[in-house]
C-alpha cells in the first residue's frame, strides 16, 4: 500500500481481468504501460495509483472495441467481489443505511475520491464528485455506475428499480444492455455523476438484512478502515474542493479554505510542502475541467465558461488558447473526430510513487 499519493484498491482490476478472461488482453503489458505492480491485483491489500486505475479502464474498453462495455461488465459482477464493501450495501437494514455506509467506508476503497449521499423532499441521491486532472475517468465511471445499479437492483430485489442515472460525459457510441434497461432514465452530458431515486425507497427494509450478520460485516469494515482508512490525502482534498467550486471562482482561496475548515496560510503551507501553490493547483484543475467539458460534453461555450468560473466568454477563450494553443471550438472539433485515449495526469499529486504501507 502507498505511503503517499492517491490510490485505489487494485482488486477491481482483478475483477476486470477475471471477467475478461476470454479476451486477448496482455495484463503484464498493461501493468508496465500504466506503471503499477501486476501482483497488486491479487493482493488483498493491493492498491494502484488513481491515474493508473483510470487508465486501465480506458485501455481495456478500447481493446475490447466497445466504449459501453463497462456498463454491462460491472452490472453483472457478483456481490462480494469487492471485499466487505459490497456487503455493507446489500445487507444493510434499509436503503438509507446502505447509502450512509458507502459514504462512511469509502476510505477503504480509495483515498482520492468520495461518494456523497443527500436527501431532498422527494429524492435521495448518490453522487461521485468528479476527479479533475487525474486522467480520463469516463470508463471507470461507466463501470462504477453499472456496479452501483446492480447493487441497487439486488438490494431492492428489482430488475430495473426506479432510478435516474446522470453522467457528466458524452454518451458512448456503442450500446449496452444497461442503457436499454434504463432507457429514458440515463442522461449524459450533464454537470454531475449521480444516481437518484424516490425518497420513499430510502426507508424500505432490505430483504438480505440480518442484524447479527450485519454486525459482523460492520466489524470487518472497521478492521479494513484501520488498515486502509487514512483520511483523504490533503492535496486531494484541496483539489476536489476546488473542482466542486469552480463556478464560484477556482482561485478563491478564502472560499476553499473556509470550506476545508483551514486557515488560508495552512492551505498554502500544505501546498508548498507538496511543491505547488494554490494558484497553480487551481489552474491545473480548471484546465482539466475545461478539456473534459469541451471533449466530452455538448454544453454551450457560455455555460462551460460559467461552470469554470469565468465571468466573460472572451476570458474563457483566451485561457483555452493559452492552455491548448487553439480556440475552444477547435478543441471540441479536434476531439470529435479522434479516438479517445487516456488523458495525461495534470494533478501535482505524486501518483507515480506507490508501494505498500
Automatic annotation (TrEMBL):
Residues 347-357 have a biased composition (Basic and acidic residues). Residues 236-334 form the HTH araC/xylS-type domain. Keywords: DNA-binding, Transcription, Transcription regulation. PROSITE patterns: HTH_ARAC_FAMILY_2. It comes from the Bacteria. Residues 331-357 are annotated as: Disordered. InterPro entries: AraC-type_N (IPR032687), Homeodomain-like_sf (IPR009057), HTH_AraC (IPR018060). It holds the Pfam family HTH_18. This is AraC family transcriptional regulator ligand-binding domain-containing protein.
Amino acid at each position: 500500500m502507498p505511503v503517499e499519493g492517491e490510490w485505489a484498491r487494485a482488486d477491481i482490476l482483478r475483477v476486470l481481468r477475471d471477467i475478461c478472461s476470454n479476451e486477448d488482453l496482455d495484463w503484464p503489458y498493461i501493468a508496465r504501460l500504466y506503471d503499477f505492480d501486476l501482483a497488486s491485483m491479487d493482493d488483498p491489500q493491493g492498491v494502484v495509483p488513481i491515474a493508473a486505475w483510470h487508465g486501465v479502464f480506458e485501455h481495456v474498453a478500447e481493446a475490447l472495441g466497445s466504449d459501453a462495455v463497462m456498463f454491462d461488465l460491472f452490472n453483472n459482477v457478483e456481490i462480494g467481489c469487492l471485499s466487505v464493501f459490497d456487503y455493507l450495501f446489500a445487507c444493510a437494514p434499509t436503503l438509507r443505511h446502505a447509502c450512509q455506509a458507502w459514504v462512511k467506508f469509502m476510505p477503504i476503497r480509495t483515498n482520492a475520491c468520495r461518494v456523497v449521499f443527500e436527501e431532498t423532499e422527494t429524492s435521495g441521491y448518490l453522487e461521485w464528485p468528479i476527479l479533475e486532472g487525474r486522467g480520463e475517468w469516463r470508463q471507470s465511471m461507466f463501470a462504477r455506475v453499472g456496479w452501483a445499479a446492480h447493487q441497487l437492483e439486488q438490494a431492492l430485489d428489482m430488475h430495473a428499480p426506479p432510478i435516474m442515472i446522470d453522467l457528466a460525459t458524452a454518451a458512448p457510441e456503442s450500446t449496452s444492455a444497461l442503457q436499454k434497461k434504463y432507457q429514458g432514465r440515463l442522461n449524459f452530458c450533464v454537470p454531475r455523476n449521480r444516481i437518484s431515486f424516490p425518497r420513499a425507497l430510502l426507508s424500505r427494509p432490505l430483504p438480505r438484512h440480518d442484524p447479527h450478520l450485519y454486525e459482523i460485516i460492520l466489524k470487518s469494515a472497521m478492521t479494513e478502515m484501520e488498515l486502509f482508512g487514512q483520511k483523504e490525502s490533503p492535496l486531494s482534498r484541496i483539489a476536489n474542493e476546488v473542482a466542486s467550486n469552480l463556478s464560484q471562482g477556482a482561485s478563491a482561496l478564502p472560499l476553499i479554505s473556509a470550506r476545508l475548515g483551514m486557515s488560508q496560510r495552512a492551505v498554502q503551507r500544505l501546498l508548498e510542502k507538496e511543491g505547488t501553490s494554490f494558484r497553480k493547483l487551481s489552474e491545473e484543475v480548471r484546465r482539466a475541467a475545461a478539456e473534459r467539458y469541451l471533449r466530452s460534453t455538448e454544453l454551450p461555450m457560455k455555460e462551460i465558461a460559467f461552470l469554470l468560473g469565468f465571468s466573460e466568454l472572451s476570458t474563457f477563450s483566451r485561457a483555452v488558447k493559452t492552455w491548448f494553443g487553439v480556440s475552444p471550438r477547435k478543441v471540441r472539433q479536434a476531439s470529435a473526430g479522434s479516438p479517445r485515449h487516456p488523458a495525461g495526469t495534470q494533478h501535482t499529486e505524486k501518483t507515480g510513487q506507490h508501494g505498500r504501507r
